[in-house]
Amino acid sequence: MELHKRHVHSLSERKGQKRKLDDQLHANRQISPPPPTADERAAILCQASDQVRVLDSTFTWNEADRAAAKRATHTLADLAKNEEVANVIVEGGAIRALVRHLQAPPIGDDDRVQKPLPFEHEVEKGSAFALGLLAVKPEHQQLIVDSGALIHLVDLLKRHKNGLTSRAINSLIRRAADAITNLAHENSSIKTRVRMEGGIPPLVHLLEFADPKVQRAAASALRTLAFKNDENKNQASDFCLKLGIYIRLYMIVECNALPNLILMLRSEDAAIHYEAVGVIGNLVHSSPNIKKEVLLAGALQPVIGLLSSCCSESQREAALLLGQFAATDSDCKVHIVQRGAVQPLIEMLQSPDVQLQEMSAFALGRLAQDTHNQAGLAHNGGLVPLLNLLDSKNGSLQHNAAFALYGLADNEDNVSDFIRVGGVQRLQEGEFIVQATKDCVAKTLKRLEEKIRGRVLKHLLYLMRVSEKGLQRRIALALAHLCSAGDQRGIFIEHHGLELLIGLLGSSGSKQQLDGAVALCKLANKASTLSPVDAAPLSPTPQVYLGEKFVNNATLSDVTFLVEGKRFYAHRICLLASSDAFRAMFDGGYREKDAKDIEIPNIRWEIFELMMRFIYTGSTEITLDIAQDLLRAADQYLLEGLKRLCEYTIAKDISLENVSSMYELSEAFSAISLRHSCILFILEQFDKLSARPGHSLLIQRIIPEIRNYFIKVLMKTNSRNIRL
C-alpha cells in the first residue's frame, strides 16, 4: 500500500484562490482598514443609495445618462474594494442595480441614439467589475447569482462575436470572466449554474483570444470551475452533485480546451502559463480519466519545461502536476525522468520557498516509487536535499521528503549512499511531526536493514576498510543498527568495526561519544536475547545438598564456626563440596584443618547464616540491603553461584548516582556479571550520565573492559562467513 497521502486541503487555498480584479487591489488590502464607525457606515450607506438611484434612472442610451451610470459603477467599485463596507453597499441595493447594467439598454423605435453609441461597453464593464469585487465575500455570491447576473456575464463573454474587437471590448470580457471566477470560488452550486447558463464554451473559446489578459482571465475562470472543492467531500453520497461535477469537468475537455491550454503552457508570459497549468492541474486532480487525456494531448513535456520557469508559482503547479501524472502508472514515472524532470526538481528542493520544496518533494516521492528511477534520483544528488528537509518544521513537507526517501531505500545501489551521507542517523534522530511520517521513517529503516547483506554488505565492509576515518565510523555506526546478529562477528571482530565504535566512545566530541554509546548498546542487545541485567542467574555447579534441616544443626556436626561469639554448627563434607576455599581450609596445610572451632572474625552472623544456607540448599533469599555484604563473603569463600545471585540483585539497583561505585564494587570482588551490567547501563544512559561530574574519567577507565565485554559477546554469536 502506498504510504503517501495527498494533503489536498493544504493546496486548496492556493488552487482555488480568488482572482484579484485590480492590479493594485492586493497591495491595498495588505493592511485591512478598520471597520467603519456608525457615522461612517451611515454616510457610506447614503452614498451607495445615491449611486443606486443614479443607476436606476439612467438605464438609457442618452449620453448624459451613460456618463452618469459609468461614474456610479466606478464609485460603487471603489467602495467595494474595502471588504469592511461591502455589506453596506449591498444593503443599499447595489446588486440589483449593477446586475441590470450588465446588459445594454434597449433601443426603442423612437429613440434617437448617436453613433457610435455613447460609452458603449463601459457601463457594463464597470458593473461587472463592481459585482466581482462584491463577490469576494462568500455571503454575496448567491445574492448576485439569484439576481440574474450569470446569464448577463456569460453574454458579455461573447461580445467579440460580432467580429469587432477593441480595447474596451477586451477589458469588458476580462471583467466578466473575473466576476465569474469570484462568484464560483468554492461554491459548487454556482459552478453548476455557470455550466447550465452556457458559460464554459465561451470561456474555452477565449483561450484563443489575441489579448493575453483575456486569455489569462478566461483560464482563471476555468481553473476555478475545474477545482473540486472540499465541500464536495461532505456531499459525496449526492449522486446528482457528483454527476454535475464530472459533467462540468468533461465539458471543459469536450470543448477542446486542452490543445489551447497546452499551447499556453509554452507561453513566455508567466501569468498565462501559471493559469494554464492551474487549469490542467485541477482537471487532472478531479478525474483520473481526464489525466490520461491530458497526457495523450501532449502536456508532459511543456509541464516539465515549467520546472525551469522564472515564475515560482508555475514551478509549484508544474511539480504538483508531475506528481499527479506519476501516480498514473509505472511507464509515466519513467517517462517523466527520461524527459529531464529530475534535475530541476532536485534544485527546487533547495529553494528557500517552502511551497516549492513541498511540491518538488511530492513529485520526487511519486517518482521514487518506481524501481527504474530510484538509483538515478540518488545519483543526481537527490538524497542529501531530501534528508535536509527532514529537519523542516512543516509537517507536510517533512512527510513528502520522508516518502521520497522511503522509495529510494528500496534500491540496493542507494544503500551505501544513504550510509555515506549519514542518512541512517538522520532518520533515527529526526523529530517528526505527524505519526504518518514516523511510520514512513520506520519502514525506510526497515528497508535499509533488509538490504544489509550480500554485495551491499561487502561493499560497505570494503569502504569501512579503505575510506577516511569519518566515513569508516559512519559505516560502523549504521551497521551496528542495521546488520543481522549473524553478521556481527564478521563485521565487528573480523573486520574491526568494534574498534571504530570504541574509538568514537573515546573521542573528545560529546556527539561522537553518544553515537558510539548508542551503537554499542544496539549491538549488545542484538548479540544476546537478554541483557545480563535481565538474565536469570546461572545455576550453581551441580552437587548434593544436605538440605535446610541441617543448617546450623548439631546433629552429625563435625566442625563449628564462631561468628560474633556464637557457635554455628556445620558439616565438613558439605563444605568440602561447596568451594575451593573450604577444600583448601580442610584439606590443605592450614591450621583450620584439624580445628574443632573456627573463628570467623569479619562476617556478621546474618550474612554467614545466609551463606551457609546457600551451601546446604543451593539457594537463598537475597535482599538489597545485605547483597553487597553477602557478595563480599561469597567472593572470600569462592562461592561463584552465590556471587552470581548477589550480582543479579545488586544490578537491579544500578542508578545514575551509584553506577561508578557499583563498577568499583564489581572490580573489588571480580564480579564479572555486575561489571557487564554496569557497562550496559552506562551505554544505555550515556546521554544523561554525560552531564554528571567525573563522567569522562569513568568512560576512559572502563573502555578496556568494554572492549573485552564485546569481544566475549560477539565471539559467542553464530557468524556467517563474509569475504570481500
Automatic annotation (TrEMBL):
It holds the Pfam family Arm. Signal peptide: none annotated. It is a peripheral membrane protein. The keyword Repeat applies. It is found in: Endomembrane system. Pathway: Protein modification; protein ubiquitination. GO terms for cellular component: endomembrane system. Residues 10-26 have a biased composition (Basic and acidic residues). ARM repeats lie at residues 148-198, 198-233, 256-298, 340-382, 381-423. Keywords: Repeat. Residues 1-38 are annotated as: Disordered. Residues 557-624 form the BTB domain. PANTHER family: ARM REPEAT PROTEIN INTERACTING WITH ABF2, ARM REPEAT PROTEIN INTERACTING WITH ABF2 PROTEIN. This is BTB domain-containing protein. It comes from Arachis hypogaea.
